[in-house]
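User: Structure please.
Assistant: Input sequence and predicted structure:
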Amino acid sequence: MGISAPVFRTIVVGILAAGAATYAASIAVTHRKHKKAPPRSSPPTLSYPDYALSEHTFLSPSTGRTISWAEYGSPESKNVVIYEHGLPGSRILPVGPNIKGKDIRVLAMDRPGIGFTSLPLAGKTVMETAISDVYELLDHLEISEKVILCGFSAGGPHVLGIMFTHPEKIRATYCLGPATYLDEKINWDDLASGPKSTNWWTKNFPCYTAFDMVLRADKIVDCSKVIESMKNISSKGDATFLSENPVEAKGWQNVNYEAYRQGITGYLQSCMEIFGRVSTNPWPVVGDIVHQKGIEGQKVVIIHRESDHLTPVSGSRDLVRRLKAAGADAEFVFPEGSEGGHFQALNYGMDYILASECA
């Protein structure tokens, strides 16, 4: 005997409700269990006396939350870059030593729940809060000229959201190895086995993914072996790059330490917003790019390395297609060669910005 339609609907609704409850419970349990920060260096850049020009916090005038950022490059430069980090990520910029004294001023922000930046207010997403934080920082620093946006990995969707909100304030937008929509257009063969499995579970069972993060929270926030983990989840090029560049490898370790300064809650919320959605339920603020208005002629450069097996290259091609459909002046830069990988996209991208915007 088959299951009647009413019974089937009841089962489906029950499964969905259980999934939603699991996700809500995971957020609550994580916040309570991991509110105390794990031990880490203080300040995190102590071993790099010239790594950052300065580090700051201020209170948001609209929410009273703390907003944290670090500054790199040259404080007098008019080439102001807002840097949005990946996941995990933070205000620590591993390529900071490479741009010291250059004609560029990079403001790298901790997103909500990361580093010293407060979590979003109840009912607000990380992305919409992060976008508001960016424009409040520009007001706080009295920066009126157009700025350049640079988003690495999961920071890619965030810089697109910043651009869509106030395109008149943006000179150019750069997405480096960006996170992409997890829909049927993805070529899953672009990914290494670890990221492929993670992305599949996140796309199809986001509630389970959130619950799994809670169960593994203690292991996630333990950054003692983060470099080893980074080498294992991506390409051989990334492993070689991190092994041959100990200063930047240490920088990436500090990036992760600061990502979990407040525990795992901010990281988890961001992961669910960026990776727990597909084209039928797209990113907050950004939505489906093809429907965006007011970005005609906006310069957007997507840089994705051939050797990146952590985020799919096919997804970046799809982002360019959607941006062009919305009228943006979108360009896809596809560096050739097998060297490097996902993490070295930040080095390549920052050099590209220096050459293209700061000459």
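The chain is about 45% helix and 15% strand.
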